[in-house]
Structure formats: C-alpha cells, structure tokens
Protein 1
Amino acid sequence: MSVSTSSVTPGSSAAPSGQWLLAWGDKTLLLDQAACKRNLLLVLALVLISIVCLGIGTLPVAPTDVILALAGQGDTMTQFVVNDLRLNRLLAGIYTGAAFSIAGCLMQTVARNRLATPGIIGIDNAAMAFAVASVVGVGISFAPSAMALTGAATATALAFIIGGGSGTRGYRFIVAGLAIGSVSAAISQLLLAQVHIDTANEAYPWTVGSLSGRPEEQIPVMGWITLVGIIISVILCRRFQLMAFSDSVITALGRTPNRLRFTAVIVAVILTGFAVALAGPVGLVALVGPEMARTFARHRGLPLLSSALCGAIVMILADLVGRTLLSPIELPVGVVTAVVGGPYLLWILIRKPKRSTL
Amino acid sequence: MSQTTQAPLGTDMLTLKHAEHTIIEDLSVSFPAGKVTAIVGPNGCGKSTLLNGLSRVHLPSTGRIVLDGQDIHRLPSREVAKKLALLPQETSAPDGITVKELIRFGRHPHQSFLKQWGMDDRTAIQYALQAANLEDLGERLLDTLSGGQRQRAWIAMSIAQETPLLLLDEPTSALDLGHQIEVFDLIRELAAQGKTIVMVVHDLAMAARYSDHLIAMKSGKIVAQGSPKEVIQPSILDSLYGVQCDLMEDPSTGAPILLNVRRSRPEPSETQATTAPKRQAQRDAVSA
C-alpha cells in the first residue's frame, strides 16, 4: 500500500458529492441536496394539506377561497370560519405534531432504539397526569404547561434512574418507561374518577389528546417553542449524529457522550411537555413522524427537520380524519393516531426484520 | 509532525478501577514518539482497560494520563481530539453510510456549525482515502465492504482526523492473515510519517513483527518493555503466558519467532481471578 502526497490536488474546496456548499467569508455550511429537496417537498405537502384542512368542515370552503381568506380577502363569513374557527386548530396541530416528532426522533437517537419515543417511555402520560392534577386540583387549568413540563421531566428522570442510566441499549429503559407511563395513566384516571363531572370534562382533552377548543393564548407560545426546538435541532444536528457511534468513538471525536445525550433529552422533554399541555398525549406521532422521515431519507443521517414536517402532516391529517369521518361526532386526534398509528407501528416492525435502523 | 524526544503520551501513577476491582494500579508508562508501541499480555492483563483509559472512555480513579505534558482530562475534549485518534474494537456506524461519509466524521473535531467544509477537510479526506487505498471504494456503502476493507475505512477515518497520535484497539482481531498484514503495513506506513502509534495486539508474533516498542503486561502491571527482541524472552513468556518455547530469528525480518510452544505448568489460578473483572467490564461495555 503506497502513501503519496503528490497526487492530492490542492485547489478548489469543492463540496462532497451530494452536498451544496454555502460559503461567505470564512464561514461554510454544507447542505445535503437530497435532504433539501425532500424537506422542500414536505413543506409543499404541508401547505397543500393545510389549505385542504382549512376548507373541509360543516361549511366547505374552496381552496382558492381559503387562500383569499388567509390573505384577508373574500367575504367576512369565510374569513371568520377560516381564520377564527379553523386556523388556530390547524396551527395547534402543526406545532404540536412537529414538536412531538422532533422529540421522538431525538429520544430514539439517544436510546439507540426506535421504540424509545416519549409516548412509549411514559413521558406523555406523566405530563398528562400532572396537567390533569392541576385541572382537577384547582378546578381550572392552572398553568398546565408548567405542570405538564414538570411531569415530563419527572418521568424522564425516573426512567433514566430505574433504567440504569442513559448508556443502556434501550430495553431496560423502555420497560421502566412503560411502567411509569401506565402508573401515570392510572393516576390520571383515578383523579378524574374522584371529581365532579364538570371538572372531569374540563380535564378530559388531556387524557385522550385533542386539538378541539384548545386555549388560544397557548398556541403562539407553542409555535415559538417548536421554532426554537427546530433551530436547536438544526444547529446541533451535526453532533447529535455522532450518537450513532459507540461512546469511545464519540469521545475520540471530541464530544462527551453523556453531555450529548443530556442535551438531546432536555430538548425532547421540553418539546413533549409543552405539546402535551396543548394537545394531550398524542404520543404515536412521535413514533410515526420520525419513521416516515427515515423512510423518505432512506435511513441516512438524522432527519430531524423532515421528522418535524412529517409529524406536523400526520397530526393535521389525523385531526382532519377525526373531525370528518363520523361527522358530526368528533373523534379526538389522539384516538385517530392510535387507530392509524398502532397498525403502522406493527407494519414497520414486520416489514424489516433484517436489522434495526439507528 | 515533529519527532519530539519527549513522549507525547504517557500515564503518571494511573489507577483504573472497574467498580470495586482494581484493574491497573499506579501505572507509569510513556509511549515513545514516532514509534509503534504494541501492548501485549494474557487475557485479563488490563491491556484493553489501559487503552480505554488512554482514549478517555474509562476515567482514572487516581493518577493522570499525560498528553503533551498536560493532564488529558483537564484539556478541552475537542483539543484532545485534534491530537489523539482512536480505532475502536467495536465499530458500529450510522446505517446507510458510505466510506467517504465515515471518513468525513474524522474531521468532526476540526469543524463547527459555521465551519463545515474547507480546503483542509477536502485535502485530509482525499489523503486518507489514498493512504488507506480506498480511492475506488469511496462511494460504496460501508455495510457492503469486506472485513479488511471496512477496517481500512475506519483507519482512514482516524487518518482524516490528522492527529499526531493514534490508538488502536486490536486492529486486526477479526481479520484473516492477508488483511492483517495489509492493516499492519498501513500502520507502519503511518508511523514512518511520524505518527506515534499505540496498539493493543493479541497476536504476539504479529506484535513482535510490526512494533518498535513492546510493552508486556500481566495483572495490570508492566512485566517487561523494550524492543521486541528484548521482550520476547523465554523467561518473560513463561511468566506472561505460562508457556515454554524456543526462539528463532526470522531470517528476512529479524523478528523473533516462537517455536515448540508448550504449557510449562498447570493454569495459574490468578489468571482466572483477573479475568473475572474483565468479563464484567466487557458485559458492561456491551450494555453501555
């Protein structure tokens, strides 16, 4: 094997194949061409589906009229239906779907296990239990975001302590999480059984997951949280990718494995906590969203952005199905994702028995 | 890469424990600059633990690992990663990754979010591909390579890291003879360019043939160190492995060859005692 430096051609710093190089000054960014195209298509799909969702309902609105209404044009009735009645619900779906999905993708990466999404390891249910407790305890929804966040953090900490630290290959951690999730769900039910029917109704959305009648003032907050989550994910994606290597390689490449995992888990917990506070435990989105993104990405890299977009699409589609399928009866979005997501999960498990991805 | 007379890497009264078991106690050793050092010894002698300590995976209980005169655990991790690369034994990689993409990960310590690609990255990767003789395989998926090719891809990743020091944990343990020679030749090639190399090698004959400096360990202590000829002595081999043998010199390479190897006495019981904590360590490493 010969080693010669002569034929290394100095000159252009052309980007690696399949990447675009953005350079200004001494700063350089690499953009994966396939990922850019994929995400662009997903954004397009999200926009189109959103317009369809805004048009469908008791009062159907044509897509062109939806666009007009969004731009503040057209007749006032349509504007009222689209902008005041339906848009908030749609935005709540997009924000929470994206948040759940990023959180799912991060947790899967940390645990190196595709099953280890926040919903499966009990973060959703614990967040729900805390939120329900606040509603039941005080009678009104007293800062459910803060309560849900506390619940999410508590469940994660417990799962890590019982599961034997973050380094575990997943299953102990998942089983511990399952137990925590079940106990949390039971606590929610117990709390609801103790109180007056009106209070129980007040807390009901949190127990199944619903986008109907969400507190309006929380939706923009969720939007900002999701945006920050996406930005952090994009910036830290390079180092999060290293988690696919063994700890010794991560260390040799100059990162601290535990610090990486801690950062990823914190982001996941915050996103899940806020999303549960708004929409309840729609945890299956965290499983289906990243899985879809990986299929589109052909299992290359860490598709955080695609996961966010897929999660948003899944969420609003599920909500659309929920409110139209048995109209005028409305199925909560959590029920739809469970009905659709369960079989989907089985399918991905059966489809690829050769090896796990991650 | 300059060949300094001072050893770039060493340990100072290093103690490595696994839970309650002390694997290595108060070990002080230094690895000569620009040379290939091979660490050998029987199973459970602590050679892999020592390498894990050097690569910062196993934290010292007491003592220090010294890199260029400084305590390695007081240096920023990224700075250490620019000086010290590792070829791990267990090599799990992201799925669906190509050879070039794997090698690009070697550039991680030199890059940041707003410094993702430069001339130096391109040159380093190009060079690593050449050095490891992988130019035709750059776009191939890592999973589709043979064992020897894959090992060269991992070595190429550490070459792209452009470190003066390279640690290798049993670099040829899963390879057939031809691929073993290929990898060892590459290691010699890297040393010839001034890299300081420290490797754990199971095969004593290969270690003797391809290293400049041999460190023989037993029960966490250094039994002998020096040139392969100095270390490969019947008395030392007896105390290390409990074997008797005759020695001969390879007429073409001058490396010592072991002949007529036979057990000198029943298995020493302490070997079992020292193997237990290592098994535990391996089990934990697998679950980690």
Note: The mean pLDDT of chain A is 85.
Protein 2
Amino acid sequence: MDTVKIVVLWSDLLIYLLAASLTLFFWNMRGNPITAARWRQVFGTRLGMATFVVLGAYIMIALLDSLHFRLALEEDPGQKSDQVYFDNQVVSVLDLALGDMATEHERTYSAPFALQSFEKVNMKNADGVSYRDFPRLEHAGAHLADPADRGSDLVLQSLIGLAKGGVLALIFVGMQWFFLRGSTLPWRAAWTTQAVIICFAAWLIHIGNLYHVLGTDQAGNDVLYKSIKGVRTGVLLGTLATLVMLPIAVSLGIAAGYFKGWVDDVVQYLYTTLSSIPGILLIAASVLLFQVYIDLNPEFFEIGLEKADARFIALCFILGVTSWATLCRLMRAETLKISQLEYVQAAHAFGVSHFRIITRHILPNVVHIILITFVLDFSALVLAEAVLSYIGVGIDPAMASWGNMINTARSELSREPAIWWTLSGAFFFMFSLVLSANLFSDLVRDAFDPRTGLEGAA
Amino acid sequence: MSESAMSSVVDAEARVTKLAVSDLSVALTGSGAPILKEVGFHLRAGEVYALVGESGSGKSITSLAIMRLLPDALQVTGGDVQYGDRSLFALTEQEMQEYRGRRIAMIFQDALTSLNPVQRVGAQIEETLMRHTSLSGAEARKRVVQLFEEVGLPEPDKRLDFFPHQLSGGQQQRVMIAMALACEPEVLVADEPTTALDVTIQLQVLDLIRELAKKRDLGVLLITHDMGVVRNIAHRVGVMYQGEIIEEAEVDQFFHNPQEAYSQKLIDSLPDMTHYMHGTADDPLLEVKDLEVHFPIRRGVLQRIKGYTKAVDGISFSIGRGETLALVGESGSGKSTTGRAILNLEPATAGEIRFKGDAIQALKRREMLPYRKQIQVIFQSPFSSMNPRMTIGHILEEGMVSLGLQLTAAERSERVASLLSRVRLEPEFRHRYPHEFSGGQRQRIAIARALAVDPELIICDEPTSALDVSIRAEVLELLLDLQREFGVSYLFITHDLSIVPHLAHRLAVMQDGRIVEQGSAESVLTDPQHPYTRALLESVPRID
C-alpha cells in the first residue's frame, strides 16, 4: 500500500529544469578551454569560492524544498482497506530534515528562545482564581524540568548540535579533500565555508526543534521555519522572473539596435508604451485577473498549494513580462554602438550571416550588462515581491515568502514593545543571499568583461 | 624656414631658462616600477622644445609631472622642476594652483573634449581671465576679442558667442590656445596639439604656436610623436625612449646627424619623396564609374527627407591587378564612404562598381557572397577591429567558415597557423585574445584576417594612422611584401600624403566627395595641378 503520494508542482519542475540547465552549462564549459580559464579565475579567489558555497547552500535548500509529497493518513475505522486517503498538507524533503519545526505551533507571538508567550492571557490557578500572566509555551523548552535550567540547557544543546554538525562537516569535507587534494584552486576557503554552514545548520535544526530560535509569529508559527521556507520562493522568484524577462529584453533590444529601421520603431514603441503605464498598476491588474481565473476554475487545482503555486508562477511571468523595458533600452543602445564597430563591419565584409553576427559578435559583448542586470534585478525582484504583498497582489499567503514576512513586520514593528524577529529572520536570509550573489557576480564580471582584462594587462 | 630656425636658435642661446627639469623620476605607486628615469632638460624663453617619442615612452607623464597633475597610480620618486628660482615640487598645492594657468598653461590634443560644450567659448575664457586677473566683465570681453584676433580666429567678436561645436576643429584648437594665453603665461605645454587635426589645418596651428613663442617670448614644451611637426616648428629636440631622454640636440643638427639608432629610425619615418612606385597594370580589376553615395537628411516630426548629404558625389577610378591606388583626402571628404560602398556596406545611390567586369553595386547579401571572398578590408583602429571576446584563431577562421571555403577543422587550423607566420607572428598566438597584443601586432592580425580568404583586392582604410611611426613602417612593409608575393591589389585610403610615394602606384585626391585630381603617384606629387593637391603637399614635412 502506498504511504506517500508525490506531488509535482509546476514551480518544482521549473526549479529542477533550471538546476539541470545550470549543471549542463557548467559541464559544457569544461570543453571550452578559454571559458574554463575564466571560470577558473572566478573560483581561483577565496571570495569566489566562499560566495559560491553560500549560493550553493541556498540553491540546495530550494531544491530540497521542491520535492513535494503528501503522506497517507492513518486508516479510519470505517474506511475500506483498499482506499488510501492522503493528508491535505503537502510536505517537502526539507520539512523532513527540519524535523518538528513545522508542526510545533504556539498560540501566538513569542520571543526568540522564550519559554513563555509574548502576550498575557487569562488563566485560572488551581484554586479557580482567574489571573493574567504569560503562559508557558507548548513546545519550546518542553523537555526542561525546570525553566531556570534554560541557560545551561541552551549551552549543552548547542554543544550537542555543533558536535553533530562538526561530525557531518568532517565527513563531508573529508570526502572532498580526498578527491580534490591535488587541485590548485583555493578549496580551503570553500571547505571552511561549508563547515561553517553545516555546523550552523546542524545547530539551527537541533536547537530549533527544542526552542523557537527566531520566536513565533502571530499565528504561533515558528519564524525560523518560515524564513527557511522562504528561501525557495526567493530564489525561484528572483531567477524565474529574470529568466522570463531576459530573452524578451535581449532579443528585442538587440534586434532594434542591429536591424534599425522599422524593427527599431516597433520595439521603441512597445517599450515606451509599456514604461508609461505605472508598473505596480499593471502588475496588480494582471495578478488580479489571474486570481479571478484561479477562483473560477477550482477543478484544475487539487489542493490549496497548487493554487498558490499557480499564482506564484503567474507572478513570476507577470513581473518578467512587465519589467523588460530598462534592459531592452540598454541592449538597444549598446547594440547600436557595437554594430558600428569595425569588427562587425569586418564580419559583414566576410558575408557572415545576421544570426552569426548577433550571436558571435554582439551577444558576447553585451553579456556583462546582462549579468549585472541579472543580479541587480534579482535583489530588486525579491524586494518588489514585498511591495506587491503589501497591496495584496503578491505571493499567496499560503506560501512562505520573505515579502509576506516583511509585510506583516510593518504592523509588528509599530507595536510597543516591538516584535523584531519576523523582520530579522527575513532580513538575515534575504541579506546573505543578495550579498553573496552580488559579490559573486562582481567576480564573474571582472573575469568576463574584456575591458577589465585590458586594464589588468596595461 | 630653416634659415629662420637657425637665427632663433642663436637667439635662444642667450635667452633665460624658464623651466629646468633635472633628474625627474616617476614610478608606479604600488610596484615601484620606474616610468621615468632621470629625465632632465631646459626650456628657454622664446623657444619650442619638442619632446618626441612613441606612445608609452613617457612624454605625457613628463608634462603631467611638471604640472603636478600625475594620477594617483604614479608618484615622483626623485628629481626637481625649477621654475625661475623656485622649485615647483616645494610649493604648496595652493601656490601651485597659481602657477597652473597663470605661468604654465597647457593645451591638449582633443580641443572639443577640453572645452565645456554647454558654455559659449567667449564666456569660458572670460571666466579664466576674471579669476586670475583683476579685469572687469567688459574689459575681459575686450581682452578675449584681442586674444581671438591674436590666434587668428576670423570675426573674433562674433566667434565669442559661439558654442564649441559650432567651430571647426582648427578653430577649436585656436580657442584652446587663446584660453591658454589668456593669463599671459611664460611657459606653454602643448600635448600633441595637432594630432586630431587635418594636415592642412595642422600646419596653420603649428605656425601659430611658433609665431606666438617668438612674439610673446614663450617657452613652449611641445609633446609629439610626429617628426613632421618637430621638423616644422621645434628649435630643440629631446628624444624619449622608455622613460629616458636618449638624445637631445638642436633641430637641424638632429635631422642631419642623429646620434642614436632609434633617432635615425624616427627620422626615417619621414617620407622619402624621391622614390616612387612604378608600373601600372592595364587589366582593371575594379572599376568605379560615377559613383554617388548620398545620405538623406531628415527633419521635422514626420522625419521627412529634406535633402541629401553628398558624401560621394560622382567619382570614377579603376584599380588594376597587383596595383595600389591611394585615395587621399581629409576627414569628411568621402574616402571611407567610397570604401564602404565598394564593400557593399553602404548602398550606392548611383553609378557603377564593376569587379572583374561584373556589376556588384546593388547585389543582395547572398549574391554578394562570392565577391566577398575576393574583396576584403583592413580598418583603421587596431582596438575596435577585432571582437574582444574571440580568440585570434576564431577571428581568422570566421571568414573561411562563413564564405564556405571547403576546409576541415584541421585544414583550417593549419591555415590559421600559416597565416600568422605569414604576417610574422607566432602560430601559438591563435589561442590568445586581441587585448593581449600591441597595436602593431593587432594590425598584422587584421591583415591576416583579410588574407584568410585569398582576396584579390584589399581595401585598406587608414590602416596605419593609429600606429606609432616605427611600427607604421613595418606594417606598410608587410603590405608591400604581400603584394609582391600574392599580387593583391590595394585601395589605400589615407589622409597622409607622405606614405604615398613609398606605397602607391597611382593616386587620387578627394575633396568634398569628388576626385579633384588623379594619376600616377609620381606625376601627381611632382607636378600637382589642382590647388587643393598643392595645399596638401605643402603641409607634408620634408627633409631638405
């Protein structure tokens, strides 16, 4: 009898498609000695190694969080034996790794590592007298005999968590060391970062199952869990929306700059029209339209998460389709410039076809612009998601996202005493993702931009 | 001219030294790699001292060090600059500010980028005047008119209210000189002041500088790579090579009896106008008949065509097999457009271009392909003529692939190797990128690229004007060798008459889209008929 039912969301497919093409891309580049040398330059720096490992960790989390399934419910007494009912709640492999974090709900807000709720409630003592006090949390520190032991227990449990992490890191890094001993790349930096991340993750998981490391939100959900679940949304939204936008912007921009004439007129007309419509309005209208479609066609969606997922993908597409104007304008200007350069003229003189001129002479020379836009837009899109959640057209509240967390933090921060941990959780994960992406892209740009190479040679 | 040079040299001996540079050393801040090594020279009042060298020899660094304007990456490690009895290096930054502009003025190569494009030229000079002197607004304006008259701007009171872009290149440079002279400096540092100008205008500006030096008793430090400029106006010469002054001499003595081999090489770059190429072929490879290329001028909201710029306005010429035709003219004369029209990169408005008898002027891309194999091109700039993201090997292979030469990958790579060695480069260079090469090497690669498809005609669009003189000679020599070896024909587009005798069998002089004179190189150069040809010829420096 089946015990699990695998659920494949569209976004799961897309994220694995992305990961596969990325792997293929890196595999392909092994064949090209020059590109390989440039990537070698990127990974030859300790910063490059470290930031790549951080990015890799994020991608890993996103991938693990994209293997969804539904567990079978236990048989009800009256149920036919051949009939299996599955839980409405979709879980992912990541949830298994995180343990009980997902299910340890409290009643409402609680501070990080707190044992008591953040708000007073009416309670009755043994004598039946009502009083108001902070109730004990249901799950945090439930294993403690005496709340006063919390300090020493935290230290002890931290050590256990770190020790677990240390062992894991040792095995993980040790295996790599065995295979990569002879390499000239600065693996030491990568291994250090890996060890730190593994230890930190092990500690988080171990402690996170005993306490609420980042407290709980209004509905009593663990904030750390929500932040980690937000990783997938953030990574996917950032990459998917940019990947939708890139081909439109690049192909239209280059076509406009290269062919000029009526092609240029049409493209310019398109993007001036697009950029004169307020972006938020356009996005809001499109998202609402799609939401209506989802609501009118419930038969397409078996479970709630599928609805949320459809809306999420729609949002990625809408963001991508509405935000290509800036990059397109850049591409057009740069192509106009490049197509006047002598090497393009020389290619014309050799009778090289338009397609080859665009792919071999123009595209590679605008790649650095694309790369920079990719990373800048990545962070901008993650932030845009927060703005959209604010006006209620962002990601479905059923889906964990940093934007939703930041949105709720708005009212939480205006309370006295302020509730700071929701924002901090989203901020920490978003910040480390965007920072390492920025640093890594700087290195990539330095390696691939011929002009920086020129300066280095001069 | 040489007589007057001699007399002012004699004068100069008695004149006061204005600027004395002694043992000036400059090094890279980080690594300490030396850029200038104990450079020393004197600049006297009323004389033009030319600092000559190729790019990278340190001549511009010397001038910046004198002005204390070195970039942060460089620092002075030794030596001194004396102005009168004061050391410039001992001044405070505030005192130095007084010296700059007031006593030592500078003019640069590109006048247009040195002038503020949104301010009237008069106002720019008035501003300098009012900051450094006690003149009032009206007085300053009057003074600017005087200055403009002095530098030979026509209608100076009207030119005052022009914006920089409304002036021609030569006029812009004159405004720059007027600005430099505004505060009555005693020393003028001119960094390649005429390199960006057309030859005929170049001569006028040089004459002006020389005249001003004499009249105002200015000490002029002239920085240039052009031996012709030196020959025309300098009194004394210092040859810079790899950060050192290797030879210093009076100008006549220098040209007649150079001490160093390198100096001799520089002098040899001056044209030899006595030897000409002979023999013209009577079998025409390319015939151009009444070619016209017009560009529409569009105006108004609807972008209606309001007129045409006649870039090429009815020219005819022909090139025989194994022959070189030099197409000479100043910028804007339509010579490059002619080349582009022959390559079918620019549609011809009217006229006929026949290659081996076939009309090729209005062919579609596909129909043109067979001719592309036979007509190739070499461009001016060695820096933008190659895709920075392709290796040399790929650049050379591109033509073979796209023109469908039936070659296997192995044959192609063999061919790349042989092409590279044919232009005297190492076959191993094929894995490198263009930016790893010097200007001269890149130009050889560009030649190899053109040769890759075995063309019969190569259009050379100013292939040497971006190169240093000594490298220029090598590239020209290579082109000549290839002509002897393979019998290719060249259409050699250039603004520089001086290289023509050495290179071209025939010569066509172009002005404002028309060919004003053409014939064998020897007959045109020794007996020019058209006044424009004569004007061009006069601006070419010669060794007597």
Note: DSSP finds 21 helices and 20 strands in chain B.
